[in-house]
Amino acid sequence: MKMIVTGLRKIESWVVTVAIIANVSGAFVLLALVAIMNVDVVSRNIFNAPFRGVVEVVIFSLALIVFLQLPDVVRTGRLTRSDGFLGLVRSRSPRLGGVLARILDGIACIFMCLIVWTVWPEFTESFESCHFFSQPDFGPAPTGNIWADFKTGLARCDYFGTPGILQAPWWPVRLVIAFGCAWAAILFFFKTALGDSQGPHHVTAQSSGEV
């Protein structure tokens, strides 16, 4: 049993490392978004030339930021939830509180898996719409030149945005959503199996200053 726990702890350390890297990546996306919005403000007010597609960039970036940082939020126990009852149980019976916390983490793991199960087919469908490696119904066949085929395929992808202003393929966003929820599910699994090593640090309305 001890060997199993030790092995799970080692795997958990790798999972945590990936979660931290994803969190840092989300922070860089946030910095890029702030820079783009500042450029839009300056160009709009000084040069009367607003940045075209800023709304689409914000929508795209927010999805990336949220789901890239979701696993690390789960790791650190900062996922917002109402845990007043759990906190009361922990204060009176730490052992029972720990059991209830593991049950809640197990339920959260199941829900994250359901999200992945829902989003993954949408990702594969939007990715396959690009026909990077297969003959499309219309248009030229792949040439074998990876970069050229990639650029050609991007023009065929299922996209969001406004034609003529800014368009972006859907599949990167759906891939990030699937990744973030899958990694969050893995972290919830480790919390369920090994307990929450971070302790009860969940954000509540009282601790966060929310009303």
Automatic annotation (TrEMBL):
<comment type="function">
    <text>Part of the tripartite ATP-independent periplasmic (TRAP) transport system.</text>
</comment>
<keyword id="KW-0813">Transport</keyword>
<keyword id="KW-0812">Transmembrane</keyword>
<keyword id="KW-0472">Membrane</keyword>
<comment type="subunit">
    <text>The complex comprises the extracytoplasmic solute receptor protein and the two transmembrane proteins.</text>
</comment>
<feature type="domain" description="Tripartite ATP-independent periplasmic transporters DctQ component">
    <location>
        <begin position="33"/>
        <end position="123"/>
    </location>
</feature>
<dbReference type="Pfam" id="PF04290">
    <property type="entry name" value="DctQ"/>
</dbReference>
<keyword id="KW-0997">Cell inner membrane</keyword>
<feature type="transmembrane region" description="Helical">
    <location>
        <begin position="171"/>
        <end position="190"/>
    </location>
</feature>
<protein>
    <recommendedName>
        <fullName>TRAP transporter small permease protein</fullName>
    </recommendedName>
</protein>
<keyword id="KW-1003">Cell membrane</keyword>
<keyword id="KW-1133">Transmembrane helix</keyword>
<comment type="similarity">
    <text>Belongs to the TRAP transporter small permease family.</text>
</comment>
<dbReference type="InterPro" id="IPR055348">
    <property type="entry name" value="DctQ"/>
</dbReference>
<feature type="transmembrane region" description="Helical">
    <location>
        <begin position="12"/>
        <end position="37"/>
    </location>
</feature>
<feature type="transmembrane region" description="Helical">
    <location>
        <begin position="99"/>
        <end position="120"/>
    </location>
</feature>
<feature type="transmembrane region" description="Helical">
    <location>
        <begin position="49"/>
        <end position="68"/>
    </location>
</feature>
